[in-house]
Write a structure and sequence with these properties.
InterPro entries: AB_hydrolase_1, AB_hydrolase_fold, Carboxylesterase_BioH. By secondary structure, the chain is an alpha/beta fold. The chain is built from 10 helices and 9 strands.
Length: about 260
């Protein structure tokens, strides 16, 4: 699809019928990283995934702001109809911003391990992440090399990143440019988005990892401010909570069945 500012975005159809369930991935990811979860969610609606601008098969073109990227997701729902928005990390932030902006389009929202105020993080987290990603030995010789480079026994980040590479003549390259990802993340540490939280009236499920990247207590406070919200912290999980599919679906599926029963 083409956005209102002319950028091409890839939308993935995962199947299912009924009201849409829009899946928004995290930084450096792509829609197909949701594949296993998407299949499990098909009984609850028409499941779609969006490659955020600069990610997957979408065009790499700014502006790299939370508002613009949330609007991209908004324009998907404007075409397919009101539905549930499910977001991990960066995608969770965009889901919150969209729910605040367009209550007519968002019936419920699921946010996985993302806060709205990272302004107080110590040091230079964006610079550190940029240096880490920039030091990766591109091109990678194989997907197994990608898994080893990004491997983590708890969150299975290696498998996630192995889905987020492009095969070229000289090997595998990350689909997202590090400089674009850095520009996106830089906005998170410059501005807090509590006003978005305070504007949300739809049911919300806030899922926090045991080993979370979110400042302590922030997701619980977000849930306190949203009238119809529940905060769940899942033991034994890292930032990529849905890598533990059983634990993740155990809280998401009941929410999708009866979101307003969750307080």
């Amino acid at each position: 699809m083409r956005t209102s500012d002319g950028v091409y975005l890839a939308v993935v159809e995962f199947g299912g019928e009924g009201p849409p369930i829009l899946l928004l991935h995290g930084l450096m990811g792509r829609a197909t990283t949701w594949w296993s979860i998407a299949r499990a969610l098909r009984p609850y609606g028409r499941v779609l995934g969006l490659d955020a601008r600069g990610h997957g098969r979408s065009q790499a073109a700014g502006p790299w702001t939370t508002d613009r990227m949330a609007r991209d997701a908004e324009e998907v729902l404007a075409r397919v109809g009101p539905g549930v928005v499910v977001g991990h990390s960066m995608g969770g932030l965009h889901a919150l911003a969209l729910a605040a902006r367009r209550p007519d389009l968002v019936r419920a929202v699921v946010v996985e391990d993302m806060g709205v105020d990272l302004t107080g993080l110590p040091g230079d987290p964006v610079g550190a992440a940029t240096a880490w990603f920039g030091a990766m030995p591109q091109p990678f010789a194989s997907r197994e090399a990608v898994r080893q480079a990004f491997g983590h026994p708890r969150i299975e980040f290696g498998d996630y990143m192995a889905e987020c590479v492009d095969e070229r003549a000289d090997g595998l390259h990350l689909l997202t440019r590090v400089r674009d990802a850095s520009a996106i993340a830089a906005g998170w540490v410059r501005e807090a988005r509590w006003a978005d939280v305070d504007a949300i009236g739809c049911p919300a499920l806030l899922i926090e990892a045991e080993e979370s990247v979110v400042p302590e207590g922030q997701m619980a406070e977000m849930a306190r401010r949203i009238p119809h919200a529940r905060h769940v912290r899942l033991p034994g999980t890292g930032h990529l909570v849905h890598a533990d599919e059983e634990a993740y679906l155990a809280v998401v599926e009941p929410f999708l069945k009866s979101p307003r029963e969750w307080r």
